[in-house]
């Protein structure tokens, strides 16, 4: 399946700034060509080892595992059945061959570890083979028998390709040792408890190819170019999955984490930023790096940055988060340079890209256990009360899953609507347990607006006391809309938080 053409429509970008969408013929101007792509693809092609992840339909997981481990000579796929396998590291595929009894009618597609995303797909011919016209990056491959097809007696599946650059690094270094600890304050991904490994440093060196004359900006552009190959999705099967390096599958957070980690290997300070609840029911993550006495914002999802000097591709004046949050990104003299066009697929993508997100996101700012983020949440009174439980925790209620300090310092700013002034109410927070490295008591507090808290303004959660997992806040409404800000004093550096599972609003008896 050919890649869809990226949508380029400046009218979808909120703001008055200029947009510069870097086409293929311009890439050498904006992205230093260090030769890493050619070096990656010049590695020897190999036959990939395959491991079963899951089967679909009524296919037998044990039978699939026996087949791909060589303990069985045959795998039967009935119409509608599928098998999802993982390659031994991400590869640039060149050929897929299937050996089966009789006629073969199967589809193959590159996917994620859940088998839900489609990055590339094709129908195998009757001989069971497919040679790719151009290499396709793949970590998970799904083989499917069509619903209207015939039963297939699969005898062999052979997948060939070139290992990804990071996979090559892992195979060639003697030991993937820790260079910077997961709790080191100079490690930008310490917020996720990820150490910087020697493989990250070797990867960065290969990307830069010893070109010491590159400026900090140019190094970041090379790193973002590398990240532009990553697929969009999620993966939790591998160490440091928050970076996506093992599988080349991630989302905006993973891209930003990878960029921050690569920057840190070069002595470039970096930090991660979150942008919540914008566009509606979504959010975004980006990265800032420090050089020339200032912070500069880069968005590795789109290979983008904001600048007042787009003609300068070596040392441009790149705006920082504070500049953008104060509205400077709307200046007509500012240009948003975008180098990863393939990820611009929809109007929502432009919502992440435009300057409006830096002004309208709520909450927004630097990640870290010491940086409080007040997530806006709401609950409308219903006759008999109102409940939000885990089944309703979704992207429309960002920040509802945590209260405390993890990679983000979560606070919850609740608005309770439809109340009767003068009426007494109970707002009950139920948690499953206290988590994190700090352990012991977790103390939470409530600050009220348009209400008088009459009971339990402060509450202590402790795993040794099951009754403490229920915090009943009693208050008297002074308006039909009441604000309850659930806060805590903890600011890290260790993780310390509760996991809420239900919020309930009832009238007090």
From TrEMBL:
All copies of domain Transglutaminase-like, residue ranges: 244-302
Entries under InterPro entries matching the protein: Papain-like_cys_pep_sf, Transglutaminase-like
Gene3D superfamilies on file: 3.10.620.30
Protein name: Transglutaminase domain-containing protein
């Amino acid at each position: 399946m050919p890649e869809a053409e990226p949508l380029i429509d400046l009218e979808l970008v909120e703001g008055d700034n200029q947009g510069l969408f870097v086409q293929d013929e311009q890439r050498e101007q904006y992205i230093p060509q260090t030769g890493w792509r050619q070096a990656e693809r010049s590695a020897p092609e190999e036959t990939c080892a395959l491991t079963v992840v899951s089967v679909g339909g009524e296919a037998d997981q044990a039978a699939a595992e026996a087949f791909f481990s060589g303990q069985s000579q045959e795998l039967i796929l009935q119409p509608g059945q599928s098998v999802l396998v993982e390659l031994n590291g991400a590869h640039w595929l060149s050929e897929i061959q299937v050996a089966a009894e009789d006629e073969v009618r199967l589809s193959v597609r590159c996917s994620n570890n859940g088998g839900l995303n489609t990055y590339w797909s094709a129908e195998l011919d009757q001989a069971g083979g497919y040679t790719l016209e151009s290499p396709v990056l793949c970590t998970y491959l799904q083989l499917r028998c069509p619903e209207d097809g015939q039963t297939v007696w699969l005898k062999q599946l052979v997948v060939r390709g070139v290992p990804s650059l990071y996979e090559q690094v892992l195979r060639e270094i003697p030991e993937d040792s820790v260079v910077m600890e997961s709790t080191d304050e100079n490690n930008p991904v310490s917020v996720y408890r990820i150490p910087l490994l020697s493989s990250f440093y070797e990867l960065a060196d290969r990307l830069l190819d010893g070109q010491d004359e590159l400026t900090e900006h140019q190094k970041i552009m090379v790193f973002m170019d590398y990240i532009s190959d990553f697929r969009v999705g999620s993966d939790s099967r591998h160490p440091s999955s928050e970076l996506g390096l093992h599988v080349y599958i991630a989302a905006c957070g993973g891209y930003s984490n990878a960029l921050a980690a690569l920057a840190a290997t070069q002595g470039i300070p970096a930090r991660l930023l979150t942008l919540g609840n914008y566009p509606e029911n979504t959010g975004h993550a980006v990265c800032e790096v420090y050089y020339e006495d200032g912070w500069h914002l880069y968005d590795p999802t789109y290979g983008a940055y904001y600048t007042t000097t787009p003609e300068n591709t070596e040392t441009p004046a790149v705006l920082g988060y504070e500049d953008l949050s104060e509205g400077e990104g709307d200046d007509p003299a500012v240009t948003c340079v975008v180098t990863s066009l393939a990820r611009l697929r929809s109007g929502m993508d432009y919502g992440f890209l435009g300057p409006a997100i830096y002004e309208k996101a709520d909450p927004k700012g630097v990640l870290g256990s010491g940086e409080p983020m007040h997530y806006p949440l709401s609950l409308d009174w219903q006759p008999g009360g109102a409940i939000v439980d885990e089944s309703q925790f979704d992207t429309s209620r960002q920040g509802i899953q945590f209260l405390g300090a993890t990679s983000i310092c979560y606070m919850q700013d609740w608005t309770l609507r439809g109340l009767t002034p003068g009426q007494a109410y109970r707002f009950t927070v139920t948690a499953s347990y206290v988590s994190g490295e700090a352990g012991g008591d977790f103390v939470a507090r409530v600050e009220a607006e348009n209400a008088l808290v009459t009971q339990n303004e402060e509450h202590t959660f402790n795993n040794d006391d099951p009754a403490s997992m229920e915090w009943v806040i009693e208050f008297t409404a002074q308006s039909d809309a009441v604000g309850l800000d659930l806060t805590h004093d903890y600011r890290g550096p260790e993780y310390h938080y509760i996991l809420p599972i239900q919020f309930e609003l009832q009238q007090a008896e």
